[in-house]
Design a protein that fits this description.
five-stranded mixed beta sheet; 2 domains; Immunoglobulin-like; 184 residues; mainly beta; disulfide bond; flat; five-stranded antiparallel beta sheet
Length: 184
């Protein structure tokens, strides 16, 4: 069948001006090339031998904001297009949230895991990220817990969270500390 591409930011989240991040594109096939587009504009292409391509954004400016996607080509023919990735560049004015996992970092498959993203700012919405991809949206600090039930091996990985204020300005926090979850 046709290959698929996943696209995500590493590290995830909203980038502050002057900050940096990497756009990662991963395809199951490994002998073609990847092309990064912003909107309909072709930005970079990478000849690949591996199954992933990484495009860096360093010293980010507001010009870097926008919608990106990756195309995977073999012999000049586009075989797959990723979903669109929204990149946001904003001043990070809120305090950094703290991510904890209430069930411990190592759990057995089938267990329930609760993540808690704590922000000292009173009314925020937080995102829980897994390996750079949005896993869940957590509403307000009062219920800033996210319960992952019946975890499987695929839930293993590096988690972090990031919050924004529920106000007209939608001010963001930096990304929290990261936690590694191991599912045995």
């Amino acid at each position: 069948g046709a290959p698929t591409i996943s696209i995500f930011l590493k590290p995830p989240g909203v980038i502050p001006p002057g900050g940096s991040t990497t756009i990662c594109c991963i395809c199951q096939r490994s002998y073609g090339s990847f092309v990064l587009y912003k909107g309909s504009r072709r930005l970079h292409s990478l000849e690949q031998n591996g199954s992933r391509a990484e495009f860096s954004i360093s010293n980010a400016t507001y010009e870097d904001r926008g919608t990106y996607n990756c195309h995977y080509l073999e012999g000049g023919i586009v075989l797959a297009r990723s979903e669109e990735l929204e990149v946001s560049v904003e001043e990070l004015r809120l305090p950094r949230p703290d991510l904890s996992v209430l069930s411990g970092h190592e759990v057995t498959a089938g267990a329930d895991v609760t993540f808690r993203c704590t922000s000292t700012h009173p009314s925020t919405v937080c995102y829980l990220y897994l390996e750079g991809q949005i896993r869940a949206q957590l509403l307000s600090r009062e219920q800033g817990d996210y319960n992952l039930s019946h975890v499987q091996k695929g839930d293993s990985g590096r988690y972090s969270c990031q919050c924004y204020a529920i106000s007209a300005l939608r001010e963001w926090s930096p990304v929290s500390n990261t936690l590694d979850l191991v599912v045995r």
